[in-house]
C-alpha cells in the first residue's frame, strides 16, 4: 500500500519534470524565430520552410505561430499530446512524421541498451563480488584497472578500437556497418520491412527486435547475421558501462563486509557462501539497483556515438543526422523521447529500490 | 567607522597566518595524495599534460592550426610501427599529410584549456548558486532543485546537440558556450546538499552572533566548508568534459575549422579516411585522450579518499 502511495507521489513529481523538458524543447525550437518553429512541422512537399510561404499558412494557423510565445506553447503542448510531434526530413528519404520515425528507430536503440545493460549486470555482479572478496589481491587489482579504463574510455573511440581488433583478429570480419544484414531483402523477408512510399525501412515484426523476430520466423541465416551485427555495438556499450557496475558492486560489498551482522554471521559458523550471498551481497546490490538508472543515463549519451560509428539506425543516429541536416523536427523529437525514456527509467529504478529496501518508501 | 573597516580590511590582507595555515593544509593533502600510488601517478600525468599545454602555449608557433601537407602521398606509420618509415615521425601522419605528433600536442593544449575553463566556470557559478539555495532555502531552493531535475533528465550529449541546433551553429566556440551554460547544475546540487548540513553547525551560529551578514556567512563560513566534494567533482569532470568535446567534434561539430587541432577531430579524420588500413590515425589521438581521462579519474578518486576519509575503501 505504501509502495503504491510512493509510486503515485513519484508520478506526480514526474509531471513538473516532464513539463520542464517540454519547455526546454519548446524554447529551443520556438524562441529562435518563427522560421525554426515552422521548420519543425513543415514537410518538403509544401516548399520552403518560411513563415510567409502561402502553403504553410494552415500550420501557422494550427500552431498559432504568429501569436505570443505563451500561446504558442499551449498549442505546441496540444500538438505533443495529440501525437503531432512535427515532421522529420532526415530520418528517411522523403521524410515522415516524427512519431512514426520514433516507432521505427526507438526499438533499435532499446535493443542495444537492453542487451548492454543485461550483459553489464551479468558480468558485473559476479566480477564485482570476486573483486571485493579478494580485496587488494590480484583479481581485485585487475578488476579495478579494467573498471577504471572502462569508465574513462571514450565510447566512440572504443567502438573504432573494437572494429580494428575484430578486423585483425577474426578472419573474414569486415566493416559492414549498419543494422541491415546483407542476407535480408524485402522480397524474401517481408516481415522485416515497412514500405514507406517505395523505400523499404527495416522494421521487423512483431517484436521489432530483428534478432528475436528472425528466430520467431525461423530465418536462421538472418538470425545469425543480425547477431553478428549486434556483437560490436553491444560490446562497446557493455565495456563502457561495466566499469560503473563493477565499482558500485565492489564498494557496496566492501561496505557491508565491515558490518557487525556479517561478523556475527561468520562467528556463528555459517558457511562462507551463505554469508557472502545472503548477508553481504544482498545488501550490496541495493545501491546497484539505482545504478541501473544512472547506467541508462550514461548509456543514452553513449548510444548516440556508438550508433553513429556503427551506422545503427536508432534514435541516436537519427539525432546526429538531424543536426547535420538541419532537421528541426528530428532534433526536437529525439531530445524529447530521450528525456521521457530517461525519466521513466529513473522512476523504475527508484521504485525497484523502494521495493527492495523497505526503509526508503517513507 | 569607515576608517575601522579600512583598517580591518587592510589587516586581514596583511595577516598572512590564515594563508599560511591554508597552504599547510594543501601541503598535507598533497602529501596524503602522494602516499597512494594510483593518485600519485594520476597527479604526475596530469602535471605532464599541463607541461605540454604550457610548452605549446609559449614555444610552439601556429599552435591553433594543424599544418597540412597536401603533396604527401598518404599517411605514414610511425617509425616504430611494423613497416614504418622515418618520415612518419613519432606518431605517424594522418590525412592530408598532417604530422600526428605535432597535431596531438596542439590538440592536448586546446582540449585541456577549454575543458578546464568550462569546468572551473561551471564549478564557480554552480557553487555560488548552490550555497545560496542551501542557505536560504524556500522558493529559490525548490525552483533550483526542479530545474536541475529537468536538466538531469536529458542526456547531456543530446542536450548539447539540441542547443547547438537551436543556435544554428556547429563550431567549436558554440560547443564551448553550450557547455559553459549547461555545466553548473551538478555543482549547485553538491554544494546545496553540503551547505544544508554545514549551516546548522555551531561556528555558523557563532558568526551570526558576532553580527556577520548573511552574505559574509555564506561566502566566508559555509562555502569554504562545502568545497571538498567540489574539488573531487572538478577533477572527475575534467575528463568528462574533454570527452564531450572530443565526442561532439567527432560527430561533426567542427564546421568552420577542419584543421582545428582537437583530439576528436583527429579521430574523425582518421575514421573518415579509412582507419582499417591506417590504425595509427585513430590510435594515437585516442590514446592521448584515454591517458588523460584515466589520470584525472585516478587523481579524482585519490582526492576523494583524502578529502573524505569516510569514503576510503
Describe the structure.
The complex is a heterodimer of chains A (362) and B (313). Chain A is mainly alpha-helical. Chain A has a domain at 101-314: MetI-like (MetI-like fold). Helix content of chain A is 70%, strand content 3%. Chain A contains 13 helices and four strands. Chain A has helices at 2-30, 34-39, 57-63, 69-81, 98-133, 138-152, 155-169, 210-217, 220-257, 260-267, 272-309, 315-324, 328-356, and strands at 87-88, 96-97, 193-196, 199-202. Chain A has a two-stranded antiparallel sheet. A two-stranded antiparallel ribbon of chain A has the order 3-4. In chain A, a hairpin with a 7-residue loop joins strand 1 and strand 2. In chain A, helix 9 crosses helix 11 (272-309). The longest helix of chain B is centred in the middle third of the chain and has 37 residues, at 100-136. Chain B is built from 13 helices and two strands; from the N terminus they run αααββαααααααααα. Chain B has helices spanning 2-14, 17-35, 37-59, 100-136, 138-152, 156-167, 172-182, 185-198, 202-209, 214-222, 227-250, 263-272, 280-307; strands spanning 93-94, 98-99. With 313 residues, chain B is an all-alpha fold. Mean pLDDT of chain B is 81; it is low at 1-7. Chain B has a two-stranded antiparallel ribbon. Chain B starts with a helix and ends in a 6-residue tail after the last helix. In chain B, 71% of the residues lie in helices and 1% in strands. At the A-B interface, helix 1, helix 6, helix 7, helix 9 and helix 11 of A face helix 5, helix 6, helix 11, helix 12 and helix 13 of B.
Amino acid at each position: 500500500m505504501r509502495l503504491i502511495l510512493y509510486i503515485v507521489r513519484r508520478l506526480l513529481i514526474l509531471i513538473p519534470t516532464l513539463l520542464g523538458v517540454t519547455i526546454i524543447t519548446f524554447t529551443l525550437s520556438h524562441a529562435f524565430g518563427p522560421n525554426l518553429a515552422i521548420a519543425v512541422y513543415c514537410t518538403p512537399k509544401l516548399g520552403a520552410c518560411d513563415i510567409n510561404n502561402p502553403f504553410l499558412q494552415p500550420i501557422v494557423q494550427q500552431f498559432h505561430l504568429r501569436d505570443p510565445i505563451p500561446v504558442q506553447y499551449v498549442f505546441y503542448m496540444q500538438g505533443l499530446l495529440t501525437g503531432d510531434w512535427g515532421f522529420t526530413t532526415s530520418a528517411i528519404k522523403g521524410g515522415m512524421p516524427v512519431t512514426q520515425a520514433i516507432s521505427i528507430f526507438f526499438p533499435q536503440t532499446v535493443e542495444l541498451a537492453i542487451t548492454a545493460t543485461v550483459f553489464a549486470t551479468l558480468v558485473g555482479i559476479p566480477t564485482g563480488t570476486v573483486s571485493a572478496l579478494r580485496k587488494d589481491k590480484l583479481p581485485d587489482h585487475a578488476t579495478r584497472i579494467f573498471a577504471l579504463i572502462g569508465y574513462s574510455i571514450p565510447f566512440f573511440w572504443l567502438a573504432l578500437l573494437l572494429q580494428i581488433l575484430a578486423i585483425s583478429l577474426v578472419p573474414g570480419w569486415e566493416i559492414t556497418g549498419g543494422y541491415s544484414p546483407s542476407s535480408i531483402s524485402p522480397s524474401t523477408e517481408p516481415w522485416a520491412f515497412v514500405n514507406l512510399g517505395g523505400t523499404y525501412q527495416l522494421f521487423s515484426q512483431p517484436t521489432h527486435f530483428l534478432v528475436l523476430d528472425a528466430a520467431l520466423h525461423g530465418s536462421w541465416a538472418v538470425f545469425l547475421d543480425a547477431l553478428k551485427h549486434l556483437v560490436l555495438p553491444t560490446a562497446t556499450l557493455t565495456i563502457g558501462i561495466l566499469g560503473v557496475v563493477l565499482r558500485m558492486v565492489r564498494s557496496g560489498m566492501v561496505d557491508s563486509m565491515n558490518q557487525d551482522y556479517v561478523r556475527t554471521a561468520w562467528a556463528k559458523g555459517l558457511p562462507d557462501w551463505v554469508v557472502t550471498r545472503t548477508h553481504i551481497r544482498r545488501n550490496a546490490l541495493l545501491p546497484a539497483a539505482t545504478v541501473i538508472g544512472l547506467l541508462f543515463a550514461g548509456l543514452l549519451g553513449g548510444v548516440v556515438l556508438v550508433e553513429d560509428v556503427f551506422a545503427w539506425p536508432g534514435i541516436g543516429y537519427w539525432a546526429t543526422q538531424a543536426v547535420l541536416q538541419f532537421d528541426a523536427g528530428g532534433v526536437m523529437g529525439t531530445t524529447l523521447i530521450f528525456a521521457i525514456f530517461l525519466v521513466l527509467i529513473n522512476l523504475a529504478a527508484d521504485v525497484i529500490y523502494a521495493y527492495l529496501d523497505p526503509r526508503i518508501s517513507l | 567607522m569607515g576608517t575601522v573597516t579600512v583598517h580591518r580590511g587592510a589587516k586581514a590582507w596583511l595577516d598572512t597566518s590564515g594563508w599560511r595555515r591554508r597552504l599547510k593544509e594543501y601541503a598535507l593533502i598533497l602529501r596524503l595524495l602522494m602516499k597512494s600510488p594510483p593518485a600519485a601517478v594520476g597527479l604526475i600525468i596530469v602535471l605532464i599534460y599541463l607541461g605540454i599545454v604550457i610548452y605549446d602555449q609559449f614555444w610552439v608557433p601556429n599552435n591553433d592550426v594543424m599544418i597540412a601537407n597536401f603533396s604527401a602521398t598518404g599517411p605514414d606509420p610511425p617509425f616504430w610501427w611494423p613497416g614504418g618509415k622515418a618520415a612518419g615521425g613519432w606518431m605517424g601522419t594522418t590525412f592530408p599529410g598532417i604530422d600526428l605528433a605535432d597535431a596531438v600536442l596542439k590538440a592536448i593544449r586546446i582540449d585541456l584549456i577549454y575543458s578546464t575553463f568550462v569546468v572551473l566556470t561551471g564549478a564557480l557559478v554552480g557553487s555560488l548558486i548552490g550555497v545560496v539555495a542551501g542557505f536560504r532555502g524556500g522558493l529559490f531552493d525548490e525552483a533550483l532543485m526542479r530545474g536541475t531535475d529537468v536538466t538531469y533528465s536529458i542526456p547531456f550529449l543530446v542536450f548539447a546537440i539540441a542547443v547547438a541546433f537551436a543556435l544554428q551553429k556547429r563550431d567549436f566556440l558554440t560547443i564551448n558556450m553550450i557547455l559553459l551554460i549547461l555545466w553548473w547544475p551538478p555543482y549547485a546540487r553538491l554544494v546545496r546538499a553540503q551547505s544544508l548540513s554545514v549551516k546548522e553547525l555551531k561556528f555558523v551560529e557563532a558568526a551570526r552572533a558576532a553580527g556577520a551578514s548573511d552574505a559574509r556567512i555564506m561566502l566566508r563560513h559555509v562555502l569554504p566548508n562545502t568545497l571538498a566534494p567540489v574539488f573531487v567533482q572538478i577533477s572527475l569532470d575534467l575528463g568528462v568534459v574533454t570527452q564531450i568535446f572530443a565526442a561532439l567534434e567527432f560527430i561533426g561539430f567542427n564546421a568552420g575549422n577542419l584543421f582545428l587541432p582537437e583530439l576528436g577531430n583527429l579521430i574523425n579524420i582518421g575514421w573518415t579516411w579509412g582507419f582499417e588500413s591506417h590504425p595509427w590515425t585513430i590510435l594515437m589521438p585516442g590514446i592521448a585522450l584515454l591517458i588523460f581521462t584515466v589520470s584525472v579519474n585516478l587523481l579524482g578518486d585519490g582526492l576523494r579518499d583524502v578529502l573524505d576519509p569516510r569514503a576510503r575503501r
